[in-house]
Fold these 4 entries.
Entry 1:
Amino acid sequence: MRYLIIAVCALWFVVPLRGQDTLHLSVQDCIELALENNTDLRNSQLEIEKAKATKKEAQTAYFPTIKAQALAFDALHPILTFGIEDIDNAQLRQILYTLYAEYGANMGLDKEYSFINDGVMLNAMAIEPIYAGGRIRNGNKLAQLGIEAAEYQSLMKEDEVRLHTETLYWQIISLQEKAATLDLLDRLLDTLDKDLTGAVEAGLALPTDQYKLRVKQNESQLNRKKLTDGITLLKMVLAQTIGTDGQTMELTDTLGLETEPSAYFQVAEEAVAQRNESHLLDLSLKAESLKKKMTLGEALPSLMIGGSANYHTITEYSKPNALVFAMLQVPITDWHKTSFKLKKHDLDTEAAENTRRDLTEKMQLQTNQAWFNLEQSWLRITMAQTALRDAEANLKVTEDYYDAGLVALSDVLEAQTLLKQSRDEMTDSRVEYRINLVTYRQMTSARVILNSPSSSIE
């Protein structure tokens, strides 16, 4: 009993401590966790496995089809009955009646006989397709396209998860940077408060200045509450995204120096040609071509060979038997119907071509827009850097003037507000640049499917 109490007490103290473990996460750590735990991404992997299963199912068409059948029966009445009455020729029937009357009874013969009252039938058959109008080969190619399409869709989902995760990460960093700015502002306000209190007591400042300062401090306190709540909420969203719910996290990356966007520039047309979306559009055209070939194969002759073995006990002298066969099927009346099916495939191919051309142009516009956004973010950073330097210099001069009694307190408070706005603008511009950079690089840095055989598909 004593050991049980000790164990319970140990759990009482240990379990809460485990819940307080702090995760130190870089942006790359968060991305890796998100890729590992994201539900949509796991489902996309399942879609790839389903497509592979479909490919294996299509491959079975290359192998023989083997079937076995067994039948046992016991009929209520004989399936086949034949006697003198079943003879259509009346003259012959009369002769047989006469012969039966004279000799039949003495010889133990009956006027009718029945056959197939019960029995067992066994059969096994194997059929191997030799030529099926190209439908088997094209069906396997179509299944391979399904695998590649699922893989490209999975890569696109990965890009979405990466962008979403990194956006959340830098949004949290942005709020933390703004909280640090508030810390700086609060220290400045505290210093002013101390100086102002002494000045009011000495009759060198008006109490209204203290009121203005209190208003500014209250405003700062409210802003801090908003920032704290925002950080908490965004961390909850990030934790759900990366699968670490209930654990305290600390983000380790900071807003470092940025690289000028010219280092990442790519021609929009070349970048779009390598995007996963473009590969999917190419696959859709190849799929339409294969579907047309499979439709054409339905109207072409097909050849198959096979063999069969059977055994039955229906007759008294039954014995095993076997045979081999070759079968050629030539559709005669399907050509007219197939011509309309092929016309439909031509129209579907034309529609797919139009869709690819339209979406390609839109992706080029999207890529150019992403580049413009990146350039604008870089310009915003450079302007924010200049504004921040000016705000810092302005605050220092204003504080010196205030200490010398040349400016009012409101001028100092305004200078501090300008500094806060400049620091926040600097933070926002750098976070915006990072997010725009991730977006642009996803559009221009293609990830390919290794060992993809689609290029060999005609």
Entry 2:
Amino acid sequence: MTNGMQLSQDDKTFGMLAHLSALAGFVIPFGNIIGPLVVWLIKKDQSAWVDQQGKESLNFQISISIYAIISAILTLIVIGVLLMIAVGIFSLVMIIIASVKVNNGEDFKYPLCIRFLK
């Protein structure tokens, strides 16, 4: 529950999908942004919870994309390879943690996230 508000199972499920859909980025270029964006756009007007979690997921995925691009550029000085691996592992772990917490009805805020959407 968040702020004393009762969440339906549907809210929790779509909130979780807003985070889990980011895993598409491991298969489809920019799928990590497209997946959460689709879930958020479909459900944002129907649930404040999904609106909040969709924005959180999108902000994190945009941030991760920026970190990945910087890491790719830094491959020219070798350290970028290690950073790309670290960014990928960090992203995967955070997506899983966020999905589990949100499905349990808990608020989740990603660390190291730039808040583009408020």
Entry 3:
Amino acid sequence: MGGEDTIFALSSGAGMAGVAVVRVSGPLAAAAINRFSGKEPPAPRRAVLRLLRDTADGELIDEALILWMPGPGSFTGEDVAEFHVHGGRATVRRLLAALSGMEGLRMAKAGEFTRRAFDNGRMTLMDVEGLADLLRAETESQRRQALEAASGAAALRAGKWRDDLIFILSRLEAAIDFIEEEDVAAQALEGLAGRMDDLTASMDAALREARVAERIREGLRIVLAGPPNAGKSSLLNAMARRDVAIVSQTAGTTRDVLEVHMDLDGLPVILCDTAGLRDETGDGDEIEKIGQARARDLLKTADAVIWMEAPDARSNEIPHFESDALRILNKSDLADSVPLSSRYDLCVSVKTGEGLKDLEERLTGMVHDRYDLVRPPVITRERQRQALDQARERLSEARAALDGPVEVTAELARQAARDLERLIGKVDVEDLLDSIFSSFCIGK
């Protein structure tokens, strides 16, 4: 069901632009076209050029393109009108003020257009989450991943799991109905174990992809680490193409974690500069020790590590990393006495720029090898992963109970189906809606 109010908002970017789009959704959308253009709505989904006037004083607002999209065949599922006006701030401000003066219309809240699309069955919860991610996508991998969800493709793949479960459940129900007729019950259960195993394998594959998808959505953490004065902050500035960190010859200048967001050949990356790690834990003041503790904690959760040393800044031993790592020697212009060996993957000089292109290529290849997926994943958020994980657990329990009472197996299959419905957003999602839709901008 649609909202009782008719809502409106600027749906294009704020500020000066060639064109601004003001969207109206609700039962009075057609009346808004009539009021400000003096004519009935045009043919559905056909743009027409009309003059818009403020009926309060008869003053011309602008010459605009008008689109009319009657429900339910619109984004929100309601009657929708769009006014495409010139994008100057004054023009937009005047049109919004005129709409505000029309009885029954009000300014939309953040995400309210999308909320109405969800309430009217035009989008699943996975579609909504994908759209939110698409609006925030900054890199190519984020765009592709979000588009898979926003377009409904991810929900379709999740819906296929639910359809398979419904088929399994129907066979179990048939076995219950004909439990006294052993031949019929046995025939209903025939091949069900294989169907369950195939479905479990498909869910397992999606869960394996989920961690990669979450990292792409949030950004991959690449940690710069090494002893003090090795040149980590200089490398951060060089890779960011701007001065982010203070650079000094004094060891221990970096006290806290500095972060730079980057696009690494389509993958979102958060490059983290950390405090220098000393072999002698007693050296350094209290603040530097806190910075070193944070650096060590960050190394435990890093998606990749760049360990940097220099001829005048070396550790007794390079630590072991759980994640992929590149071990580099900086200040190669001073490194004649320190040949490249198994200790380092490559030599660079941040000062002269030598080896930096090779470093970025090696880093890009390492990250893409681990985090590139053949196709966008189904599961991209923690909420989705938990719902699928629960469905997979119930299905696994149903598979294990298949040789026991069929009623137990059927109940476990029902629970798995309900978990998948929560994934798609068909049941038990009311507590999530306000937080999800509030993250949208006004006008979407």
Entry 4:
Amino acid sequence: MPTIRQITSINAPVPVCFDLARNVDIHTQTTAKTQEKAIGGVTSGLLEIGDTVTWEAVHFGVKQRLTAQIVEMDAPHSFTDVMVKGAFKSFTHIHEFREHKNGTLMKDTFSYKAPLGLIGTLANKLFLKRYMHTFIKMRANELKKIAEQKKHSYLMR
């Protein structure tokens, strides 16, 4: 099972980073390049344990839908989502947040199984793993920008 790990240092408090990462509206903003939008389940606000969200996005020029569910949460340190339905055979995405120097270390661990058996295995080696790593890194960098702008007072409790 391929696994992608991305660690991002963010100059913002752990609770802010945690809430930004599980905010459906922010997710849409950070994935604008793939035209991602929530079309089912929780479609706005903060995701909680047990919640599902169905995303529609364009990847490889094809409109796709994927439903994920939050299966674990240890606020504000981690949450895990898994694919319930979608293009992958399966995936698990663990989001972790730890205090670090001037803010937060955000760690994404994305483990997945490509669909289509041997064809999927070949696609993974040729382009899928690189594509997914770039996608996760891009989203992490966008979250970092938002968190560091300190324009997130609407998330503070």
